[in-house]
Amino acid sequence: MSKNLIIIENVKYSFNKNSNFVLKIKKFLLNKSDSILIYGDSGAGKSTFLNLLSGTINPQEGSINILGTNITKTSSSKKDKIRGDHFGIVFQTFNLLPYISVKNNILLGKAYSGRKQSISNNDEVKVLMDKLSLNYKDLVDRKAYELSIGQQQRVAVARALIGKPEIILADEPTSALDKKNQNEFINLLFKSLDDNEQGLIMVSHDKKLSSKFKIVKNITEICEINND
Amino acid sequence: MIKFSLVFQSLLNRWLSCLLIILTLAFSISLFFTVSRIQESVKSSFQNTVSGVDSVVAARGGNLQILLNSVFLIGEPNNAIKWNTYKDILDNDKIRWTVPISLGDSHKGYRVIGTNNNYFKEIKYSSKKNLEFLSGNSFKDVFDVVLGSIVASKLNYIVGSEIAITHGLSDVGEIHTFESEKNSSYNDHAKHEEHEDHDHENLGFKVSGILKATGTPIDNAVYISLAGAEAMHAGWIGNQKVIDVTLEKIMENELTPKTITSIFVSLKNRTQIFQFQRDILNYKKESISSVMPGATLSRLWTLTGNVDKAFKIITFFIIVIALLGMIAMTIAGLNSRRREMAILRSVGASPINIVSLLLVESIIISVISCIAGYIIMILIFSLGKNYLQTNYGIFIDSFSVKNYDLQIIISIVCASLIATIVPAIQIYKNTLRDGLSVKS
After folding, report:
1. Per-residue pLDDT tens digits for B11-28
2. Which residues pair with B290 in a beta bridge?
3. Which residues on A lie below 8 Å from B342 (Cβ)?
4. Is B127 part of a structural domain of the chain?
5. How many CB atoms lie within 10 A of CB B207?
6. Do A97 and B3 touch (CB under 8 A)?
7. I need a surface site. Which of A138, B69, B113, B245 has the fewest CB within 10 A?
């Protein structure tokens, strides 16, 4: 299998035919064991970029190749399957369903993926929680809303990592954390990644956290936006 | 597994609004069940009571009033007819048997029927079943009393108990306040004197027999012989006591009644009913009429039919309103759950998956509501049955499972699924538009 996880070429996206907003991506690559930090101001197209990658929106032109499949040409249910099988996604805040336990929140990460379920057993919850410095005994049966923000973000990482997806997307996962916790979070995130296999794309509004990343790019280097 | 527990936990998380929706649905469903069932039950119980009686002869008046009063013991008794009229009618050769009925007295809130032993021999209930005695037997003596099964069990009477019959119809509630001790009416005499009804406490009636339960108004009455009724009324005109009489004096009198309320008639040949009615209408000495129970009841059902329909339509709309409430709750909840949907999308759930979660939710809510509604209906039945019997003399069948229950439940669940289409479309659009970008 090739070392390319994601190949984006000549993509052009607008909300609809009459919209002024047009986002273009000439070329974007994510390889195995790459870690890419994309920074930039809000409104620069970060969310749209992540939605394109994960297949929840479809570009009008170009190709988005995920692990050898061009998702711009597949059905939306196939896209949902690819996202479930090969992606782990961490949001900015409120990553968890507050009313279910930590354990179920983590297991939710593989609930819609046959692939993740086949390669992961339920012991992985403990392994991941240990890696992410979450006290298994204390926290595993607690409801998510009882956790601190820092703990919630780490549970979200565990959910993203369960079943060893090839691609990890993180959308400003540290923005709700203070400085000390931000660094700790990034360290734990990198420690938990399977260095040889997984590729990480993290989006952030500042590049202070860039030291650990292999590649650091401004969003404007990737996306060209016309907003007339 | 986790997907299903997700639905449950999500519902639990919103338990208050869910509970309210379930309550509204459950009450409206129970209303629907109860209304249709009581209607059916009342009909069959009325129909069961009149089995075998071809005609009720009484003083001319409203047919329905005559029937309700003399057969179902509902309402005030109509005018009396003369004993001689009864004797004349007996001469009619179309008649197979007759039962004279004399109403107007009560015992502790239960109607007293003056009649003769023909009543126990000839009256049938619930498609031609004969009346049977649980214990004892019919009248042998002037002051013998036969009790319906409910009267006997409610008042704790056995064969041999001595009871006092009240002249006039008493209010049930008032009478029942001092029913606790069966002999207390003798001791608490002072209390009774102020009461507008009058105990014939000097005339001891004695229970000679108790009837088996029939599930009709027959259970709810006290039966005395016409002679006993006459003896009780000696010295009374209307509700006023005019002379003091002793038991000895009464027994010296001829105990033939002067009037009765109505006559149940069975004909040798039912096809002669119209000729018999003409005979009755042509009776010159008194103005009397003959009521056909079956035909009169059918008229009653056509009268109440529209009310039934109106009730059903109202309860139907109540269910619709409850379902609208469910949609409103779901839609109101959607915005705050957009984040939840985005999380599910991020782990690979398709919009269809998310819509199906919503549908499972509404199935759970509607099934729980149906079960709760059914239980409420059973409660209404078991509590309301006694209330209707004691207060209105209306007998309804005990609760039973009906074939159409399941159909109703299934159609309500389907209706709630259809109702969920609106929020489902909404949520489908939301998930497509939002993708993974979650707005807080």
Report:
1. 888 888 889 889 988 998
2. B57
3. 91
4. yes
5. 22
6. no
7. A138
